[in-house]
Specification:
heterodimer; A: mainly alpha; 3 domains; 0% strand; B: mainly alpha; 69% helix; globular
């Protein structure tokens, strides 16, 4: 849904792509500085040794909920004229089965998907194994999907 | 400055993670989520795959997801090299071994398979979904924790310790 007054120049196309790299970089920097990208923090969460992860997720959800509510109320457009929508996430059985399997993997690796990329960028070479495992898992899901309870 | 170079406290990091959701919506027109990148990377790596989940995936439209996770790596690089006064220990030393690599491969497999089945991870369900009051996301997050706590219990029984 681009507006006609936005010229589709090369610079424009570059900035359209770069904004995701920049916002991702902000996210990766914050995740790293919060140390939620470390195995130790995830273990400390599952063993209830530190409240940090619960407080971080809780305060992140609170701020995000406010911003999501504002977006739904005021329906802004992006600087490139795109509509901003917040679609519902439909209920399906995979949230239980898949969620449980992810939880097992989250504990074993001490890493969820965002931190895999953060560990790689931060110089943790062994995160390559986690990423290869995750891509193999996604491929196995693609293969198994027709046979799974959705 | 010393404050910023040290690990950030939850009350700074948490709200900034929440702010990411708003930035991505208002500047990018996208809903926060990371694990869909696994699907897109699979499609990019195997463009000739006939599996519908990979073949019926318009990667051009989802390119933002790959750019976003590249950004996450870049941000972590900047944080480690320019905004830290001590090294960040991502994985403990005992994971830097053959058995550690096997654990990461097996655990990573569960992360990839599980998040795609659940259609979201900590970002898409725990942060974005809960912030949008989605019941599916609440059940997803409870399931994530059920899995993690079961694994924690098994680890305690097997090792008798907290490693």
């Amino acid at each position: 849904m681009s507006r006609s007054h936005v010229a589709d120049t090369r610079l424009n196309q570059f900035m359209r792509a770069m904004r995701y790299v920049l916002i991702g970089a902000f996210f990766g920097l914050v995740l790293t500085k919060a140390e939620v990208v470390t195995w130790h923090k995830i273990r400390a969460m599952f063993y209830f040794q530190e409240p940090d992860l619960y407080l971080i997720i809780g305060s992140a959800v609170a701020v995000a909920a406010l911003l999501v509510a504002l977006v739904k109320r005021f329906k802004p457009h992006t600087p490139f004229g795109e509509e901003v929508t917040v679609p519902d996430k439909p209920m399906h059985k995979g949230v239980f089965y898949g969620g449980f399997l992810f939880g097992l993997g989250w504990f074993i690796t001490g890493t969820c998907p965002g931190p895999i990329y953060a560990q790689l960028g931060g110089g943790e070479f062994f995160a390559v194994f986690t990423l290869i495992g995750a891509l193999a898992g996604a491929y196995a899901f693609a293969w198994a999907k027709p046979k799974l309870t959705d | 400055m010393q404050f910023l170079l040290s690990p950030w406290p939850w009350w700074l990091a948490g709200p900034l993670i929440g702010l990411t959701v708003g930035l991505l919506l208002v500047l990018g027109g996208r809903n926060l989520g990371v694990s869909s990148s696994f699907r897109h990377l699979c499609t990019l790596a195997l463009p000739k795959s006939r599996l519908p989940y990979l073949a019926h995936n318009d990667v051009r439209k989802q390119a933002w997801s790959v750019l976003f996770v590249f950004g996450i790596s870049l941000g972590a690089f900047l944080a480690v090299h320019f905004l830290s006064n001590a090294p960040v220990e991502f994985l403990p030393a005992h994971y830097h071994s053959t058995s550690g690599a096997l654990k990461l491969l097996a655990g990573g497999f569960l992360v990839g398979f599980g998040t795609r089945w659940a259609r979201g991870c900590t970002s898409g369900h725990a942060i974005m979904g809960l912030a949008n009051f989605q019941l599916a996301s609440l059940y997803a997050v409870l399931s994530f924790f059920a899995g993690g706590l079961v694994a924690a219990g098994i680890a305690l029984l097997l090792n008798g310790g907290l490693s």
